[in-house]
Amino acid sequence: MALAGWLGVGLAVAGLAQAGFTTPAQTVTLDERSLRYHVVEASGERNRRDDGAPPVAIVLGGGPGFSSWNLEPVQHRLAELGYRTAIMDMIGVGENAAGGTGLAGQPLLDTWVAQIEALRRAVADERPVVLLGHSWGALMALLYTRAHPDVVRRLVLLNPVDPERLAMRDVAEQIDRRRARALGEAWDDESAWEQRTGGGEDAAATARHQIERSLPSYFLDYEQGQRYAEQFDASDFSAQLNIEGWRAYRENPVDYATIRRWDVPIAVIGCRQDLLMPVNLEALQANLSLGQVEVLDRCVHFPWEEVPRAFGEALGRVLPGTEGGSD
Predict the structure, then answer these.
(1) Sign (positive/negative) of CA torsion 302, 243, 267, 81?
(2) Residue 202 CB neighbour total at 10 angstroms
C-alpha cells in the first residue's frame, strides 16, 4: 500500500535529533540570486497528461519565517498521489537565508511571490500547478494566486488562517492559556512576536526560545510537540521575518471579494482540536464557496505528524483524480 511507504517517510524524518531536507537540492536563479529547492518525482502513472507529464504541486510552509523541510512527509504523499512535488525555503530563512530578505528593492511578500513563480517555472514550465499551503503558507498561496490566478489549478489550504483575519480575535489568548496549562506556569512572551529582535546570538536565542516554547502548544500531545521542536535549530526560524511578514500582510491582505473572482477550486483540511481552526473555517465557509472540507480528529496543527494515516487519506480525497477527489 502506497500510504504505508509515506508513513515510513514521516516517521523517519520525525525520529531525527536534528532534521532537515533529505532530498538533493536543485537551484533556480531569481534576479541573479541562486535559490535552493527540492523535488520528489511522481510515482506511478496516475494523473499523467496526454504527453506523459505528471501534474505539479508546490507545498508552502508556515510561519512566516519557518523552514519547510518539515513538510517532506506531505511532499512524499503528494508524489504517491501522482504529483511532481516541490518545496523550498522562502528567501531569508533556512537554506535560502544567505543574502538577506530583499530582492531588488521589492517588498518582502512581493519577493516571496516572485520566488514561488520562479519555482513554478522551474518545475512546471508554463503548466498550472496545485498549491498546498499550511497555516501561514495558506495565505502565501492566496498571495501568489492573487498575482497569478491563471496558473493555479487548485488550492489546498491546510489548517488555514482566515485571509481577512476577521476570526483571529481572542485566539492568541486561548493558545496562551493552553500553553500555560501544559507548562504549569504563566506565559507572557506572546508579545515577543510583535517586537523587534537583535541580530547574531540574540536573534538565534530568540528563534530557539520561540521554537522550544511555542511550537509544542500546536500539538494535542504536548510532549510529542516538544520532541518535534527538538528537531529544529535557530536557522530554521527567523523571528524578524515572522514579524515583518505578518505586518506586511496586514497592510495588504487578500480579501474575499478578490478570491471569489478566481476560477480556482479551493479545498480545506484542518484539525478539530486546532484553536485556530473552528473560527477560521467558519469565516472561510461564510465567505467562499469551498470544495471539499476535511476536518480531522485528534490533531491540532500538524496532522501529518499527529494523525498521519488520516491526513494521507484526506489528502487523497481532496485532490483531483485521486482516491475520490474530483475536478
Answers:
(1) negative
(2) 11
